[in-house]
## 1
Amino acid sequence: MNQIQSYISEHKSRFLNELIELLKIPSISADSAFKNDVLKTAETVKTSLEKAGCSKVEICETAGYPIVYGEKIIDKNLPTILVYGHYDVQPPDPIELWDSPPFEPVIKPTDKHPDGAIFARGACDDKGQMYMHVKAMEFMTATNQLPCNVKFMIEGEEEVGSANLATFVKNNHDKLKNDVILISDTGMIANDVPSITTGLRGLSYVEVELTGPNRDLHSGLYGGAVANPINVLTKMIASLHDENNRITIPGFYDKVEELSQAERKEMAKAPFSLESYQKALDIEAVYGEKGYSTNERNSIRPTLDVNGIWGGYIGEGAKTVIPSKAYAKISMRLVPHQDWEEITQRFKTHFESIAPKGVNIKVNPHHGGQGYVTPIDSIGYQAASKAYKEAFGKTPIPQRSGGSIPIVALFEKELKSKTILMGFGLDSDAIHSPNEHFGVWNYLKGIGTIPLFYKHFTALSK
Amino acid sequence: MNQIQSYISEHKSRFLNELIELLKIPSISADSAFKNDVLKTAETVKTSLEKAGCSKVEICETAGYPIVYGEKIIDKNLPTILVYGHYDVQPPDPIELWDSPPFEPVIKPTDKHPDGAIFARGACDDKGQMYMHVKAMEFMTATNQLPCNVKFMIEGEEEVGSANLATFVKNNHDKLKNDVILISDTGMIANDVPSITTGLRGLSYVEVELTGPNRDLHSGLYGGAVANPINVLTKMIASLHDENNRITIPGFYDKVEELSQAERKEMAKAPFSLESYQKALDIEAVYGEKGYSTNERNSIRPTLDVNGIWGGYIGEGAKTVIPSKAYAKISMRLVPHQDWEEITQRFKTHFESIAPKGVNIKVNPHHGGQGYVTPIDSIGYQAASKAYKEAFGKTPIPQRSGGSIPIVALFEKELKSKTILMGFGLDSDAIHSPNEHFGVWNYLKGIGTIPLFYKHFTALSK
């Protein structure tokens, strides 16, 4: 493809400003207080797709937040790429830990991003990475170099489990028909170590509510005589891991894919410094399942983490109370072959079974999704690998990610096509954390790499 | 004493209205947002003591909230009773569980209080019970029947550990010189089963802060590879009790007073129905230290309860985060001979020792106090017993309470006098809980019983 670099340098500041405007809208799907902002973001995405050259763009209503669909079909005989992304973002809290307001984007240099990074909630996950595709599309249409058909499906509920996307996909097989699905919602190892994510973990997210006495009690008059819901909840949660940090839910590991020593050796080749990993997090030691390395623990092994816990008096000062209720949000990351609905059921059954007499337990399944693995011998992967080689001058490393994009497994099931995960963010970009950011270099590099995937995929498809 | 009943019935509605006005002021000492209300409450108490006939009343400043002091010395040769109470209240949350606003008192009948109960935060603990003494004083002075000297010391920091009362007491031995200390901040078994509290538990209250990674992390990218502060905190807290619900802190039980079988038999005589106890709390079963009855567990045995826990995402919806920090407020109820400062140190040492590598733990001691036992052969106890016999027509049962009034032990140490705990509330009055209330009958009965204590104590002191 010609003129990619010249086009990017020419329009660089506009590319940045458009993204900054998008990041200013607090599209927090988890909090209904931001409903209008989420809807406004969908409209903004729609307009951007029209400007980028899509011939047909529409806001598709769902039971929840709408899906923005756009397409440009140039020739029925050419392959079709379906681009997926999301315009919603994680809640920004703890807000006090942000150095600048999460929805007032600023560009500042960092160690990893000497050319500057855009600091804002959603900068990397996923507004920034989604918008790379919009700008790549603009380049290809503006320079008449779009080599194949393209479809965009940008949703607004990824951060809350894509509850309504499944229905939309099931009901729109023809509309979404494609030869490969392209997603940028993952990361790469480093700016000089390009990598492509070939595996994702599944997810099961539940919320538990434990009820003891029917009212808050004075811990002096009742302490020691009735089950304290917080004490009990800590015991129940603690018992979910054994002394080797293995999860104790019966049958939890039954279907876990066990990698061969050869595969584990291959994985171990990815550059990794435990020292700098620990230094970056200010921790003295790592912690996890016995018998596995850090990179294995966060990619090929399933996990169980409490994402939130609360109960009793959490205000200033002291209150000697035994609360009536205690709560926790718990998520399990699953690996290929584990079925998230089965695991959710196993969790529910087990957690209810370990509740002592004197308390009532409610387990509310929140959402979930299956894990996924991309075959590296597929045309899609080969095209992506060539694109990186051309853009970065290096062959990318295939890498398993610990994250989850539940809908990837759904896409394969419903649309019968493979997904390629071309992520340009870095682990240090603090997605889901305060001070989330996305490198300016990475943003522009993504815009420059995506059209090369289009080119190679079209060529390899012939 | 003459005309007690007639005086009470004559002034009943005023007695109730004055208390209701006092209850309208949200004197929440734990929350600095209510500072002005706490101070206003002190002023109101001061005025009420003046009107009740104290010859000298003053607001004594402290490093925290002031202590209201009042006295009436009629004859240096007569005994002196020191009345202690507190004008601060517990925070009202969870506010949504109140049937009526906590600081808009209403009088409604209940099963246990057919004549009506005053519903408001502080109705029983301790504004209502403290104000009984003010009105008893009014009766005795108005009818020229005050048989001895009286001093009042009403503080505003009881619900946050009486941090500054100790200094005040230490610096005012002469001012506070007395022959017996009288407190109504406990309960009795039932309106037809009067009892006097002869034992109190001590308290050690700590707050723990656990820090893992230096920022919140994405639970997909880091889950399983780094210590999750919430998972770790639940494991650490869970380990504080063994399978018999005994506390595992080394040395915790070393100084615990072990009651003889005879004493335990005596205690077991107090009327108690496990069925109605469970029914009142809507629990299927009680829960506690193996080998002890419910009444023993909440009175003569030490306990460890989590009063509050929080960490991670606790808002609406889901957030897949590994938080940087997790917190808990933990209190231990202690029994006679356990030293609260020693136990606090033992907790700190043990809790820090069980923290795994990869997390940092901070234990912040909050406040505490020693347990206490009143000898039933003392003049004070005998006088109280006679007063109840005269007012209720029944000899009161001596009873150990699970609650703590840390300053009682301090009083004995500093002022060398015994404390008599004449409580008129019921366990069902929901102190420290939503819908706290105090029976109108109990309020008036208290006002009628207190002067009889003055009479008998003066007589027995001759």
## 2
Amino acid sequence: MQFSPLIKELIDALKILPGVGTKSAQRMAFHLLERNRNGALRLSSVLHNAMEHIKHCEQCRTFCENALCEICANPKRQSSELLCVVESPQDVLAVEQTLEFKGRYFVLMGHLSPIDGIGPADIGLDQLEQILQAGGISEVILATNPTVEGAATAHYIAQMCKVHTIQASRIAHGVPVGGELEFIDGNTLTHAFSGRRVI
Amino acid sequence: MQFSPLIKELIDALKILPGVGTKSAQRMAFHLLERNRNGALRLSSVLHNAMEHIKHCEQCRTFCENALCEICANPKRQSSELLCVVESPQDVLAVEQTLEFKGRYFVLMGHLSPIDGIGPADIGLDQLEQILQAGGISEVILATNPTVEGAATAHYIAQMCKVHTIQASRIAHGVPVGGELEFIDGNTLTHAFSGRRVI
Ligand SMILES: [Zn+2]
Ligand SMILES: [Zn+2]
């Protein structure tokens, strides 16, 4: 004996969510059936809408349902000569939350990874090339992740900038503010030492 | 700046899932958008179907999309004089997986909990009363959870059985097979001692 066919289908469908195994999917399915059918119906309809309507911003490649995202549709932001390159829409949100950066973005939606067959065109570097060529950018701030792939991607884009004689910079890596030294990994600490400044 | 309205809606909708907070919901939303739009569309349609069509088995109260669940629709099972009472559909599955029990079920979909306002009618005990009255049951096996509420619920149903002169039994509590004694909680160990048998 197993659950009814439709319940089994529901549990299987929930398992496409990252981090959700059979046990969690069962728990979710019964929770929705017992306590929140309206919420589940709303989730069903929002999921459908989102998958049908969310595409990439034509200019910066982040996810949005319009041709241009909020930032790319803002003339103030678009008149900036600074372009910040990040790997994901979540990174845009993280940078925005600092309230420090008022320029434009370009969202790679990933990073170069030859081993996975992800080359320059897969992360929109042809589109970025056109933006650099179009002029109006004085500096590209490379805010890719502090990983091997992120660093390699930043390096590749820095070379592209050189061709267009546009300055490229990389955000500083170091000890997080408020972090305790003893819990920082060695690699970060190495970066923190080599990036030290006279005070 | 925040995510686009539709992305925000998607993240909020995913947060109705048990154990899913803002960060997980974001991760899920972007995972689906980037890597599995077809899976998400399938989840959307299954969710809708399930919420619209899954109801309670008319006889045992478990969740199913038909009038009767697989077990209640099976004449062999329904001719049994044993009725096992459990709290949830997942418990039916657990008992079925032992392949030991071949009788009927009654699924409370909860337990008595006066503090939460959950009384006998809320867990279908009026329906259970009718089943006991209808005859054909010689023993009710109380397999509610080994919790205070599960035990109280079992006790309540045992009293109902007494009225109909039907034998009521409670599944044994004790040390799980393969469990190591040192990791068993004291309450379980107490049950294991008081339930000891001569070998
Ligand atoms: Zn944009
Ligand atoms: Zn049934």
